[in-house]
Amino acid sequence: MADGKKGGVKIVTQNKKAWHDYFVDEKYEAGIELFGTEVKSIRGGSVNLKDSYCTVEGGELFAIGIHISPYEHGNIFNREPMRDRKLLMHKKEIMKLAGLITQKGYTLVPLSMYFKGSHLKVEIGLCRGKKLYDKRDSIAKSESDREIERRMKDRTLQRY
Q1: What is the per-residue pLDDT across 40-98, written as a single tens digit (0 to 9) for each?
Q2: What residues pair up with 5 in beta bridges, in sequence order?
């Protein structure tokens, strides 16, 4: 698991900022429509999900703000790095998400991108924004968890 693989899934990138800025209520898996040079660039790890989000337009789901760097060995087939990309889900799921994001405070955010077999998938989350005090609470909790782990580790090492 050290190389990002678990059960046939190879994680390419994760959106850590989304976990800091939002409460993730539900997660969904979607395919993504890409060109060949974009897939090659993603396999090389040249993708960034930071500041990206999803929107529903005309019954279709789009990811906006995903930066896929141009493929180094590509030529005229390279695409615009910040173009909007269509996400592939069942129509019922898209309509359900469209109804949910019209509610106050909900947004769709790409959480991670991974290969499942030979197919590239995007995990999107139905998220609510965190207030500043919520972010402070999250930081304080993670720091206290780290401190507890350190002390438990020291305690187990002292026994031996």
Answers
A1: 888 888 888 888 888 888 889 898 988 888 877 767 666 777 788 889 999 999 898 88
A2: 10
55, burial (CB in 10 Å: exposed 0-12, middle 13-18, buried 19+): middle
Amino acid at 3: D
Instruction: In whole angstroms, give the CA distance from residue 156 to residue 160.
Output: 7
DSSP 73-111: T--TT---TT--EEEE--HHHHHHHHHHHTSTTEEEEEE
Grouping H, G, I as helix, E, B as strand and the rest as coil, residue 62 is strand
Q: What is the pLDDT of residues 110-131, one digit of tens each?
A: 999 998 888 889 999 988 877 7
Q: Using an 8 Å Cβ cutoff, are 119 and 31 in contact?
A: yes
d(CA 88, CA 96): 14
Q: How far apart are CA 124 and CA 29, in angstroms?
A: 6
Place of tokens 């059960």: 7
What single letter denotes the amino acid at residue 24?
V
* Residues 2-10: contacts with CB under 8 Å, at least 24 apart: 8/116, 8/117, 9/114, 9/115, 9/116, 10/114, 10/115
